Amino acid sequence: MTNIIEKYNKPFEYTGIIMHLIMACQFLKLWYMPRFEDAEKIYALAVLMAFEFVLMHSGVFMAVTPKKISLFILVPIYGVFAWAFSQSMPDNSILVIYGLIILNRMRFAFSDVSKAIKNKAILTSVLGAVAYFILIFVCLFTNSIFGEMGLTPAFLEKSGYFNHVKSGGAFIDTPHIALGFGFFYYSSLAIVQALLLQPKRLVHFNKIPHA
């Protein structure tokens, strides 16, 4: 009998695409036309892109890990990251959106799913990881492709951005790189998931034996 996760897997996939597009729009908005009162939110999104390095594998971990391990080990671990991220947020708007993304990825922890769905989760996570590493180097070496946009040194100084900074690094010191990267990364995740909605694209991958 098909379990509820498999039965409603397609709506979950559409939800994932929508959430990724919303996140991409948030990054673009704060990159292109930030307001002075957005300084803390800009810092939080810069921090988020460092968290995403760990969390981008959540989908495949939940798909291939036994349910008990997922529920009692992986879910609490991701919960700690979500809590840590929430400490940097001035409000709950982006945190709620990001939480929905993580819950969508974590749905495999609550039910055993078919091999086809597991393979699809693996492929989605692999392509997401590839996009992450390609885009991070492109954005770092091209100064985020389109430059500072609204996040100029003058804006950062007047907005008091660095008053919120609690750490350092390329993403934190030059937030336009982090936000540009975030925009391209979440856009690419939405594109990958949209492409994989087509069953024909998964036929070859599903024939490959996986452990």
Helix content: over 70%
Instruction: Provide the structure class.
Output: mainly alpha
The number of helical segments is: 11
Measure the end-to-end span. Answer: 23 Å
The chain-level mean pLDDT equals: 78
Structure, briefly:
With 211 residues, the protein is an all-alpha fold. The chain has helices at 4-7, 9-32, 39-55, 58-64, 67-86, 93-105, 115-141, 153-159, 170-173, 175-195, 203-206.
What can you see in these coordinates?
This protein has one domain (10-206). Helix 2 (9-32) packs antiparallel against helix 6 (93-105) and helix 4 runs antiparallel to helix 7. The chain is globular. The protein has helices at 4-7, 9-32, 39-55, 58-64, 67-86, 93-105, 115-141, 153-159, 170-173, 175-195, 203-206. The protein is an all-alpha fold and 211 residues long. The longest helix is centred in the middle third of the chain and has 27 residues, at 115-141.
What are the defining features of this structure?
single chain, 211 residues, mainly alpha, 70% helix
Topology:
Elements: H1 4-7, H2 9-32, H3 39-55, H4 58-64, H5 67-86, H6 93-105, H7 115-141, H8 153-159, H9 170-173, H10 175-195, H11 203-206
Helix pairs in contact: 2-6, 2-10, 3-10, 4-7, 7-10
